[in-house]
Write a structure and sequence with these properties.
The protein is mainly alpha-helical. The protein has helices at 9-17, 35-53, 62-88.
Length: 89
């Protein structure tokens, strides 16, 4: 089995001494989409595809709507009545 080679200090420090060249974007530089925009587009495509394939109807039946309104409003007014009786009594 070969012994691991040791790097010299100059070889090890060489990547740290490299300077990245930074420049301002010019008016004629090609536009590149950001990773965030690409991710948002992919998520939107998935949601659109899922909505298209969904077999669930978009509307509730009249009976279900009436039951929901009755329970919700009835619960609200019951809480209001309970609050008034607690405050008054």
């Amino acid at each position: 089995m070969a012994a691991p080679s040791r790097r010299s200090a100059q070889e090890t420090a060489a990547p740290a001494r490299r300077k990245a060249s930074v420049r301002l974007a010019g008016a004629h530089d090609p536009a590149t989409p950001s990773p965030a925009s690409l991710l948002q587009d992919a998520v939107n495509d998935q949601w659109r595809e899922a909505a298209r394939r969904s077999a669930e109807p978009a509307k509730w039946s009249r009976r279900r709507t009436a039951a929901f309104v009755t329970v919700t409003c009835g619960g609200f007014w019951a809480l209001v009545a309970l609050g008034v009786t607690r405050l008054a009594g």
